[in-house]
Structures are given as C-alpha cells and as structure tokens.
Amino acid sequence: MKRFFIISARMLPALLFLLLLNTNSNAEGKYNSSTLILKFKAGTELFYQARELVPKTPEGAFYVNSNLLYTNTIKTFLSEYDLYWLKGAKPDADTRPLPAGMERIFIAGLMPGAVVETVRDRLIKSGEFDYVEFDHIGYAGGMLAPGSEENTAVLPNDPNFNSQWGLRNTGQTVNGIVGTNGGDINIANAWDITTGNTSIKVAVLDSGIPLTHPEFSGRLLQGYDYANNDNNPTDDQGHGTNVASIIGANSNNNSLISGINWSCKIIPVKILNSSGSGLYSWWVSGITYAVDNGAKVLNMSVGGASTNAALEDAVNYAYNNGRIVVACMMNNNNNVTYYPAGFQNLISVGAINNRMQRAVPFCWGGGSSYGPHIDFAAPGEMIIGLTHTNPATTSYWCGTSQATPMVCAVVSLLYSVNSSLTYTQIYNALKNSARDQVGPSNEDTPGFDNYFGWGLINSRGALDQINGIQPISAIIPEKFGLHQNYPNPFNPVTKIRFDIAAGNTFSAVTRLAIYNSLGQEIAVPVNEMLSPGTYETEFDGSGSASGVYYYRLESGDLFEMKKMILVK
Q1: Short-list 499, 343, 404, 427, CA closest to 166
Q2: N or C end: fewer C-beta atoms under 10 angstroms in the chain?
Q3: Sites in the chain below the pLDDT cut of 50
Q4: Does the active-site annotation cover 239?
C-alpha cells in the first residue's frame, strides 16, 4: 500500500530547495533524485487530461492526494508510477500546439522512497512520452575573484569605467597584468550609434538581481524565482548581480560602473539557488517565462554537463519565437560540451583575458572551455561589476559567465537599432564583424576555430553590419588604400571601398570622413578599429546639395583622400 504525504502548495518552494540536497550521479552527470522532466506525446488522452490540471500560475502543482477534481485517469497515472505531484513547465499554456511542444512538457515529483531511475524506466516503457529526462543540475559559469568582495568605487563618471577593460582596453593593468590596447568589444565607438532602447527587454536567467539596487532603478521588470517558486527574484548569491550589471547597470550617472546597454529593460529570472546551482527544470521554466514576457535576448551564464531534451526544447521555443539565447561555454579548460551552450539555435561564448588570449587560467583557476560549438569570444577575466550585498560597492568576477553578458548586451544594442532583426541577421552581423586572429596563433587560427569561434566580438563592427559597412573579401590586402567611389557622379547614394592591410590591425582607429567643398566634415561612415580586409560602405547624399565632395580615409599615420561629385 502506498503512503501519501500531505504537502501544501505553500510548502513547495522549500521542498524544491531541499531536493537539490538529494542527488544521484552517473556518466550523464548529477541529477535530482526526486524529480523528472516529461514530455507527453501529442494528441494522447493522458496529455489533454494532464493539461486541464495545470494551473494558470507558475507556482502551482497538483498532488496525487489533492481534493481537486482529478480524473480517474490522471489519479491512476500518478499513483501507478509513484508520482506525488505534477506541474507544467509552461503553466499558462493551453492545449494549442506551441513551438517545440512546450505545452506538453511537465515536471513530476516522485513519492518519498521511489527510485528515480526505476520510475524513469517505467515511464519510458509506458509509451506515453516523447522523452522522460533526469532533472539534471547545472551551475553558474563564473566565480568571484579571490579577495574581491567589496571594492568601493573611487574613480570619476562612471568612476570605475577605466577598470572595465573589456569595454575599453587602453593597455591598463588589471590584477597586475598589462593589457593589450584595443583588446575589447569596441563599445565606445558603438555608443556613437546607440546606447540602447527602452523597448528592448533582456532576461537575465541567473541567481537573481537585488531589486532595490539604485544602479538598476527604473530598469527592472517583474520577474520570477524558480529556485524558491515565488515572484521575488532577489539575488542571494552574487553571480546574477554581476552578470546583470555588465548588461545594463545605469550608465553615465557618476556612479560605479557603466552597463553596455544604457536603456534596456531587464527581466530577472532566478534559476540558481544561493549555492549557485540549479535544476534543469528551473531553467526550462525560466526560458519559457522570459519568452512569454517579451524578452528579446536571454542571458544564460550557466551550464551543465548533461544534455537534456526538455532544455533543448525550451531553447528552440525561444528560437521559434524570434528570441536569442546567449549561453556560456563554462570554465573547465576542456573540450567538453556543456548545456545549453551545446545546443543549436543559440549563441555560445568563450572568454578572453586583457591580453586577448583565451582566459586560462581564470583568477580562481580553470579556463575557458572550448569545442566546435563555440561561436564567439568576449572579455571574461577580472570583470568588474556590482555586488548584491552592498549597493555602494563593486567586485571582480572571472569566467565565461562574464563574457556571455557582453555578447548578450551587444545583441540587445543591435535590436535597439532594428527590433525586427532575425537570429540569422544578428548572427551574421556578429560573425562578419568579429576580430579574427587576435589570440595565440596555435589557437586563434584563420576563420572559425574551436577556441575563439569566429573571433572577438566587435560591437561597433556588428552595428556597422546592420547599418551598411561590409567586409567584401577574405583576401588580406597587401597595402592600405582607398578606392574611387562608384557610381561617380552619384545621386544620391554611392559606395566607397577601402583596404586595411595586415599591419594596421588594432594599431589605430580606421576613420572614413566626408567633407564638403568648404572643408566642413558632414559625415563619418566609419570610425573604428578594423581587422585586415577590404570593406565597403555607403554614403547617402540625400540631405546634401549638388557639388564636389571629398572623402578621406585615415588609420594611424596613413591617409588617402579622393573626390566625388553629387549631381541632383
């Protein structure tokens, strides 16, 4: 005879927290011994009856001994398979088909004493499910730098901006190591185009955010805490605060640090507990919550060693709804695939240090993991951010967790310029502008490689891709040069092509400016550090009068000027 234990819905947060203490492990990695993730087959009677029991609030779950009106079928199902409670991964879904079949994914809690492996095998054999997955445990992808709990900001507006080498690397010393000038994400030039847009929502799926922190004032939207199953996603670990501050701390306010996106709204989704770990079921629910609440970009600085069909379905749910998940490669300095970064239809990010080397080791050890699924690299060593315990302080963190929000924030800037961009357009803009061969030659090889992906993220270059500057050849020019515009004469648009030779890489900013016949500067189509190559951009003279104009290309001590004619 089965023994039923009465647990109220109010007890569910504590129950779910304690479940992390009860784990199993095998070759697939650690997983919770008290929960499973199920995906009912489409069109089955059991699914439709289960769907009717799903409440319209994320915290709800149905119990085998509940007084609610169960169908005999569902009650028998729960009892037969030693299941104590059942909860929808997407609780507000109805029976309509959703991308990735998200309406059919459920989380099931086992009866006390039930063996998770046995229950899983029995459920699979029932034939009612597309899959039955262990509820694996994953972890945050970054760690606090030793001795960096609370470093009070002391520098001028934003006072710690000079310490944010990942945004502007001038060769400053970080943790005793002199950096490489230009080894950053080129954000200062990107801000010339946009500092963000209030209509763009970015979801931070992490350990939470301090909801009253003044550096997030006016930026936070309603979120959810899946670790404790409530609507208070306050950070109790610190990882999420650092990550969120990289993306969107209030900027240019004479306080602490500068976020990359100065205007975006942030949705805090807590999927890690106070120890920095979380169940995959929380991650699945967190992704669906973020998508359903309008997030354009989802930052997931987390990873687990086990693949999981439900987690992949959630990523595809985001992708199919036109949203982009950005995930970290993790930090074990190995060619092991961690998830969600190992899935398709997202962006996976590795980390570099301030010398443009792959970050190995980090300040605490380990190193940026690598493999054929990496997409891009971004700064991730000694990255300054906000702390969750004291709103007046900052701290340094190290990991691919810190590189990931840099890419996430750049994606949000691209959306700020054009919110209708597709995943493919965003990806290609990042790919075609990425700085290749910036790291050691044995790792950062020409084109794609397993250590840097397509290269170091270039925010201004990606925006230029969206706005019209394009690399047009993979052949590296032998010398610096400016081509004659075409057509010429033109009305009102003309194209300008130029060459950047190998010796110009990161040595100086490349600047293309347009002047009228009086010598007045009227436009600057290009103003950034560019990798060697041949580029093309457009000049639109719609707002200018007919006449002779000049365009000048300069990079360091090199310059060239040519004449063009606008005829209307």
Answers
A1: 404
A2: N
A3: 1-21, 150-156, 505-506
A4: yes
